[in-house]
Design a protein that fits this description.
globular, seven-stranded antiparallel beta sheet, SH3 domain, 9 strands, SH3_domain, OTOR, single chain, SH3 type barrels, SH3-like_dom_sf, mainly beta, about 130 residues, signal
Length: about 130
């Protein structure tokens, strides 16, 4: 009896840790360097700290370098967000995690491509895991 209860609890915990949540869209269109948004558009330096308000976003620290992979194009021209990940040996635990951050919080220091494509965002752009 106790082993089946433990198994049931384990399955429940496993299910909770793999559940993704669909969040509201931040924009309907985005700019990327390729169709998969896998090419880095630019490198930027964080001008100030930003604390992520929810799972769609990443935390950035002032002075931290950020790889920019996409730039959202808001319909109303406000709330411009870019997507990327941080790079810093000091914050190695954050490296590789993609998320959004406000564009005014960073200054582009190096552009890697001017050859970009505009495309529709999808629901998958705003899933949190």
């Amino acid at each position: 009896m106790s082993s089946s209860l433990i198994s049931l609890l384990f399955v429940g915990l496993l299910h909770q840790t793999t559940m993704a949540v669909l969040m509201d869209k931040l924009a309907d269109r985005k700019i990327c360097g390729d169709a998969e948004c896998s090419y880095v558009l630019s490198m930027a330096e964080a001008l100030d700290d930003f604390i992520a308000p929810d799972c769609r976003f990443i935390n950035i620290k002032r002075g931290q370098m950020v790889y920019v992979y996409s730039k959202l194009i808001p319909a109303d021209g406000t709330g411009v967000f870019w997507s990327g990940n941080v790079y810093s040996e000091r914050y190695v635990d954050q490296m590789g995690r993609m998320g959004y951050f406000p564009a005014p919080m960073v200054k582009e220091t190096q552009k890697f491509t001017d050859d970009t494509i505009r495309m529709q965002t999808t629901d998958m752009d705003f899933y949190c895991d």
